[in-house]
Amino acid sequence: MSSEISMNALRWPLVAAVAAVALLALPACSGSSESDNAAPPKAVELTTEVAKPSGPVDSITWNLSGEPNTLDPAKQFANVTTVVGNLCEGLMRFGKDYGLQPALAEKVTQPDDKTWVFDLRANVTFWDGQPVTPEDVVFSVERTIAPATASSWAAAYQNLRSVGKTGPHQVTFRFREPDSMFRWFQASPSTYVTEKRFTERAGKEYGSATGGIMCTGPYKVGAWRSGQDITVVANDRYWGEQPLVKSARFTFDSDPASRTAALLRGDVDGAFDNPVSALAKLKSSGEGDLLFGKSLAPVFLSTFVNDPGITHQNVRKALAKLVDYAGIAQSVYGGAAIPIKQLTPEATWGYSTSIFKSAYDALPEPKQDLDEAERLVKEAGDVPPLTIAYDSSAQESKIALSLQSTAKQVGLKIDLRALSSTDFLKIFYDPKSREGLSGYILSGSLSFPEPLEYDEFATTGSYYNYAGYHNAQYDALLKRARTTLDDDKRAELIVQAEKLRDQDGYNVPIVSPYLNVFVNKRLTGLAPASYNRATPWLTKLGAAG
């Protein structure tokens, strides 16, 4: 018997507000003020493979750049994802290079272009021993979509018609139209499953230090001492292979100097997203390995096209000529970044690489040209001062100061608005916070290597289209791309749309920073990869040989 819950009546405004913060501003939260002036390395090598562990480890300590607000899988942000990916699981899982692997679903089929059928593993239990049922899956999806949850992952279900139990161990998703994005979302936190009974009993406290969570992953919460640490321990009921690390303690040190010192002393075994100021010391310390990998994160200047100073296309073009791309990659990011030509560079191409590469190679190299910028500004005439916002605690602050300085050289006045991380995030859900701004500098990110995810933010009517960009042809191309399941055909549509957007120049792509992870020499197994965020990465770690 089929029991389905209709999604047609759901509404999105509050969800969209939170999604904007999570999907656009996530990596910006990992930036830190620079209290250590050590010179960063001049170049980095990327690591894709590391030695496999030789045996188990009783316990490790891992640092986060701040304490999570919640461990609720539906409300994950930067630090929360780092922890929760080890605690909770979805229907599928990302493997190496984002290859899809079975997780709670051992089989997935598509009887037609609008239907996904997931056969769940039998005998999987939550940490408390209760069996995972189709009802738990349906509940978790419904809860993620509900406006009251305000989950950033609700965007996965914008085309969903219904989700329901269609067998003793089976759940079926039916969409209004083919949705090319769902193949990625099925391995994202949008399908993480929580126990219905436990979650309903916990109510608003679910995910908190007092309310707890109930999932199925290889680790479960041992203790959460607010303001101090979170300890997770191996789940002895886990359906898969038992992890080598038996327990992990997550600390919450956000100060760059003390974070680095703890890693160098061996008090902390590892950390993601170490600040640029720490890279040289960590790399040369001999206490562990500092590893770099490609990321899905572009750093860019986004402008509001209706701002009086931005409406003239010459001004937008001039801004792109002001940026010292190579200098920023080297001096601001210590060589741990690459200049980019558009928001979706090579690392974001999860399919049809030759199509995306051909279009990307045809774009001009990003290069500073102050003479051309000066010419464009003069042709634009009387340009009012621009006001650019940035997160004062992140690396983007240095980019903002550089942009202001070069703008002055070509006769363009830029006023900077330095904002705290909290106030900067308001730009993405509070229209009043955007008043008086010509644009902002941001470190963004994709959830998976699908350019369409970012490109849709610029469509007319999208909540995320803060820039006010409008191009009817662009909208039509991306709408077709979303419903096109053939990878090559979708890639061609995306390339056409991106060409239109790039010509209009409402944003200025700058660099893509590499992600980094430091791992103490007593451990091995964890290679730097952006898909670690949504996977049980702790299970990869073990004793070094």
Radius of gyration equals 23 Å
* Total of DSSP H or I helical runs spanning 4+ residues: 16
- Terminal CA distance reads 53 Å
CATH-defined fold name of the largest domain: Dipeptide-binding Protein, domain 3
Unreliable residue runs? 1-41
What is the domain total for the residues? 3
Mean pLDDT: 90
Describe the protein:
The chain is of the alpha+beta class. It has 3 domains: 1-23 and 88-216, Dipeptide-binding Protein, Domain 1 (Dipeptide-binding Protein, domain 1, Alpha-Beta Complex); 54-69 and 217-292 and 516-545, 3-Layer(aba) Sandwich (D-Maltodextrin-Binding Protein, domain 2); 299-513, Dipeptide-binding Protein, domain 3 (Roll), CATH 3.10.105.10. The protein is 28% helix and 21% strand. It has 16 helices and 22 strands. It has helices at residues 13-25, 78-84, 134-145, 182-185, 196-202, 256-265, 276-284, 313-322, 325-332, 353-361, 370-380, 396-409, 421-425, 451-455, 472-482, 487-504, and strands at residues 3-6, 57-63, 92-94, 100-102, 105-112, 115-120, 160-167, 170-175, 219-225, 229-234, 245-251, 270-272, 288-293, 299-303, 337-339, 386-391, 414-419, 439-443, 507-513, 515-520, 523-524, 542-543. Helix 6 runs parallel beside helix 7 (276-284) and helix 15 (472-482) packs antiparallel against helix 16. The radius of gyration is 23 Å and the shape is globular. The N and C termini lie far apart (53 Å).
